[in-house]
Specification:
Elements: H1 2-23, H2 28-37, H3 42-59, H4 67-71, E1 78-83, E2 89-94, H5 103-119, E3 130-135, H6 147-159, E4 164-170, H7 176-183, H8 189-192, E5 195-198, H9 204-208, H10 214-227, H11 230-233, H12 241-244, E6 263-264, E7 267-268, H13 273-281, H14 284-289
Helix pairs in contact: 1-2, 1-3, 2-3, 5-6
Length: about 290
């Protein structure tokens, strides 16, 4: 079709503008994502890719370690827990399980999570996107500073364009409208359309089922229930050796998601059973870096 021809032509133009230095580091999928983000503007797309590649050279260390989690394992609770109905990685976070409010350190943890989400995407997954479920349990006045949300928006828009498939705001309270009013002017219209507000009411299972299979819906609703209980939250700690910079485990049987403390009242905090099986199917070196 003419549209496909124009798209192919735009990709070629971007590849030519990137030249030898950057062209080898930007695959066609990355170029296509940036072209969609920049509405087909070849020049803007090229500059975005160069800026992103320069950023990745300085901001994506190896190994990926979260400084805050290394100091305090309760700093963040944001990690992948499964896949949605079309195979996109699903990330889950909750406010009352995270103690760190530093924007830069939150961004560092997000980068770790996003990079691993990308690493588990199936090559056949056309849009190469993830879904983020943000549980608003514990959201309050201390969370109204827009800095972290704006940093996340910059991260999405500038360095991970067209990676966010959907952002589910689970049980966002009325007070959230204050924060939303502060950040909404900075949101790209396309990003705004990806927001889905789901209330924690009798229809929560039905609404979540629009995105996820029964297994993941059950995992999320169990998390919601557990995270509303202070005594249950105290039993939880999400921190893999890789994210806190500790020595890796020697065998697959020692993986953090197989340890006793990964299971709280019969619920594995690392994700659904099928997701854990997926992790176990990867080679040991990959698991150690997860």
């Amino acid at each position: 079709s003419a549209q496909e021809h124009d798209s192919r032509d735009n990709v070629t133009q971007v590849q030519n503008l990137l030249g030898e230095k950057w062209g080898q580091k930007a695959d066609e999928a990355m170029i296509q994502r940036c072209l969609r983000a920049d509405r087909g503007n070849v020049e803007k797309c090229t500059q975005r890719i160069i800026k992103t590649l320069e950023w990745r050279q300085t901001m994506i260390p190896s190994p990926l370690v979260c400084r805050a989690c290394a100091k305090d394992h309760t700093s963040h609770y944001l990690h992948q827990v499964g896949f949605d109905k079309i195979g996109r990685p699903v990330i889950y976070s909750v406010f009352n399980m995270a103690t760190d409010m530093n924007p830069a350190e939150n961004v560092q943890h997000m980068i770790h999570c996003f990079e691993h989400a990308i690493s588990v995407m199936a090559p056949k997954l056309e849009q190469q996107q993830w879904v983020w479920v943000s549980d608003f349990s514990g959201f309050g006045m201390k969370n109204l500073n827009p800095s972290i949300a704006l940093e996340a928006n910059t991260l999405f828009g500038t360095y991970y364009p067209e990676r966010l498939g959907a952002f589910i705001l689970l049980g966002a309270p009325t007070i959230f409208s204050v924060l939303y009013s502060a950040i909404s002017p900075a949101l790209d219209p396309i990003t705004s359309k990806k927001l889905a507000f789901i209330a924690k009411d009798s229809k929560i299972t039905e609404r979540l089922s629009e995105f996820f299979d029964d297994e993941l819906v059950s995992w999320i609703t169990t998390e919601v229930t557990q995270n509303n209980s202070k005594s249950t939250r105290k039993k939880k700690r999400y921190a893999t050796p890789a994210i806190v910079g500790e020595p890796g485990f020697a065998t697959a049987e020692e993986a953090p998601y197989l340890r006793k403390d990964a299971v709280v009242d019969g619920h594995n905090i690392h994700g659904t059973q099928s997701f854990l099986q997926f992790l176990q199917s990867q080679d040991l070196a990959w698991q150690q870096a997860y």
